[in-house]
Structures are given as structure tokens and as C-alpha cells.
Amino acid sequence: MRVPFVWRRTAEANVCMWKDRAAYWRGRAETAESQLRAEVAARRTAAEKFSDLFDEHEQLTRDHARLAARPARFDGDKARHAAARIERLVRGVARARAEAASETRRADRLQARLDDAVGMPQGGRIANSGPWQPGFRKTEVDH
Fold it and tell me: Does this model's pTM top 0.70?
């Protein structure tokens, strides 16, 4: 049997290559571990939030079930009070609508008088408002 003959440079290059490869795989493993830790933390946070929401929903559901199980009571005083309030609101709305219609008619009459005063034709537009504007000077464009 023959003893294998290995050059020192070749042996050192092989050792360097295997150290680099081991460092690469160690880096990948560390990255995977940190990603796994982040994923586990995110899952734990999501599970806690889900649990809190579920507990809150259960509490609301229990409260609603408890309230629904109680027999409904008719309160005549509250009903009379609500009916009187509704009647007051209806009268107030009718009064406000009448006032708005009156003001609209008044504003329309005033606008018509203003249009007549400045010479605006009925439903038309004024071609030149210069004659009644303060500081009006006739220019070449106005001719």
C-alpha cells in the first residue's frame, strides 16, 4: 500500500473551502432560526388577539342572550313622553320648512328686483357690467 501524498497548499485550500461551506450553512441555519422565532412570535400574538376577540364576542353574546331572555316591559310614561317629543319635532320641522319657503320666495323677489334695477334681462346674462361698476373705464375690448 502506498501512502497518499498531499500537498500542503491543497490541504489548506480544502480546509478553507470546508470552513467557508460550514460558515455558509451556519449562517443559513441562524437565519432560519431567527425567522422561525419571528414566526412563532407572530403566531403567538395573533393567537392572543384572537383569544381576546373571542372572549369579547362571547361576553357580548352572553349579554345579548341574557337581555333577550328577559320579558319585555311596556313603560307607558316613556311612550307618552316619546310621543309628545315626536309631535314637538314634527311641528318644529313644519315651522322650519314654512320659514325656509317664505325666505326662498322673499329672496327670489329681491333677486328679480335687483335684476330689473341693473338691467339684466329676464333669465339672461349681462354682456357688460361695467356701467354700474365703480371705477369703470371703457377700453378697446369693451367697444
Answer: no
